[in-house]
Amino acid sequence: MPRLNDQVRELLQEYADLINITGGDAFRARAYEKAARAVGGHPEDLAGLDAKGLQQIPGVGKSTAEKVAEYLSTGRIGALEKLRAEIPAGVREMMAIPSVGPKRALSLYRDLGIASVDELAEAIRGDKLGGVAGFGERSGEKILHGIELMRQSGGRTLLDTATELAEQLVAAISAVPGCTRCAYAGSLRRMRETVGDIDVLATAEESAPLMAALTELPYVAEVIARGPTKTSVLTTGGVQVDLRVVPEEDWGAALVYFTGSKAHNIKLRTMAVRAGLKLSEYGLFEMGGDTDGKRTDGRGKDGKRTDGRGKEGAKVVSATEDEVYAALGLPWIAPPLREDRGEVEAALRGELPQLVQESDLRGDLHTHTDLTDGLATLEEMIDTAAARGYSYYAVTDHAPDLVMQRMTDEKMLAQRERLRQLADRQKKLRLLHGTELNIGPDGGVDWPPEFLAGFDVCVASVHSHFGLDRAAQTRRLIRACENPHVHVIGHLTTRRIGRRGPIDVDLDAVFAAAARTGTAIEINSSPQRLDLRDEDVLRAKKHGVRFSIDSDAHATPHLAYPRFGIGTAQRAWLTTEDVVNTWTWQRLKRFLRKDALR
Ligand code: DGT
Ligand code: CA
Ligand code: CA
Ligand code: ZN
Fold this sequence. Notes:
- There is one protein chain.
- The chain is of the alpha/beta class.
- The protein has 4 domains: about 5-155, DNA polymerase beta, N-terminal domain-like (DNA polymerase, domain 1, Orthogonal Bundle); about 155-245, 2-Layer Sandwich (Beta Polymerase, domain 2); about 250-350, DNA polymerase, thumb domain (Beta Polymerase, domain 3, 2-Layer Sandwich), CATH 3.30.210.10; about 360-595, Metal-dependent hydrolases (TIM Barrel, Alpha-Beta Barrel), CATH 3.20.20.
- The chain is about 45% helix and about 15% strand.
- It contains 26 helices and 17 strands.
- A 7-stranded parallel β-sheet has the order 11-12-13-14-15-16-17.
- Strand 12, helix 19 (about 410-425) and strand 13 form a beta-alpha-beta unit.
- The protein is globular and about 75 Å long.
- The relative contact order is 0.07.
- Zinc ion binds near residues 368, 436 and 552.
């Protein structure tokens, strides 16, 4: 999703919230909220559109278009700034606590004078919310939990924002004359679900022009540290970026070092010692004074360190990561595996997995349209899916128990009819008609078996009763797995990163049930969810569970999300054998006939 569109979406959403809490017109607020969603899901970048062009986006009216145009040309929205000024920053921070929200934050401020997150936590612990309307004992606990979640995510950045920013940075630095190589490293290259900061690595004879280019970027707000080998900045979005520039001959060693993880690096260091080498952020070196001819290019003098960093000998040219791993007696290890979860041992045994790749995906089994809460039409979603080169594609709009979506049997059947017509026009793409069922508190789902049998594929997800106890939660999910019409369990833990924790459930029991019944578990690729998370996928795989890497797209740009789910899958060592939507249609079809063949 384009970054700019996301920024605008957030500003419009904030504007809507502020209208609401300052007692403005609720109808107006809703219009801005709708516009926020429309802009966020708009497939094209907003840059370059004027007020007129903006108004062409469905859901964007005249006054929204003017505000967005103002933002695009001046970088601010006057009306928003005015509303912001009415509310202290600490109160706005309180609004971001998942279980508080704008309305309650304002009433806490107005009624109790609580003006920051810290003051709020203190008031709850001191039992000072008791008498206030709408704040029972349980809500105090919930709020504390919300604060904890917010602090845990502690300024970490979601994968889509980080990826987009990193790609812009690499493009900008690569374009500087004298830059010979540039890539991002760190946790982002390892595809962690969130990143603390972005690490960019480049090679050049002279570092100064590259450092200058970074600090002069329009979206850089602050320079934290500036030096010849490393410069750190903060972007306007609050993300820290570290740029390191090294000599070309150190590229391989530096890329390994700054990709990490730290634990993987420490493991490599032990391997290096065995090979008579030393690996550090300054490069790959032969051990102290030992110059027995391993040196590859006679650069010994340059490489010799006399600055007290250690007694290492000659620098070993390490132009690529391959060379570094080879020097340590190892095959190249893919970055998502570099977490010291047994990858070095597996590499030594020659047993590294052949990781599933984004290009292996043959389809998407969980997507929405504007029949429920999606933004795009059936036709638009299908066209975008076809352009991705998929061989199958499932439309899975919400089922009726999610009441606000107003689904009916008639609507569902009419969509199926339309989909079958569109299917005739598709040459390569097989269209599947599905639904996303709601797993009830007792494990039942929306429709009776006869109706369910009419779908090609059913995803079933928890959308309610998040607070059930562990036993009940486990029971309902096992029952869903046992339903012969349920093929995929969607976003199993229901977490939203930094906003809502996972439900309390015995995952091992659910994994065992999924494996036994031939029910796939989803890796929901939305960067806000990434559910299941990598450690749990790894555990599920040990039970023999199969996975479906889906977008859960609610707009056409979201169909690109599986690149993030693939990151999770790779971090969990998955191969194509583990992922049902890498399989041919023939094989997937057998899997979807859950009862018949297994
Ligand atoms: P993050 O930014 O918190 O999401 O995680 P990383 O892994 O990107 O960590 P960061 O940015 O602090 O450092 C980038 C890489 O540099 C890290 O993955 C490994 C390497 N590194 C940093 N500090 C150390 C260290 O003390 N020892 C070793 N061996 N490697 C380090
Ligand atoms: Ca980092
Ligand atoms: Ca860093
Ligand atoms: Zn969904």
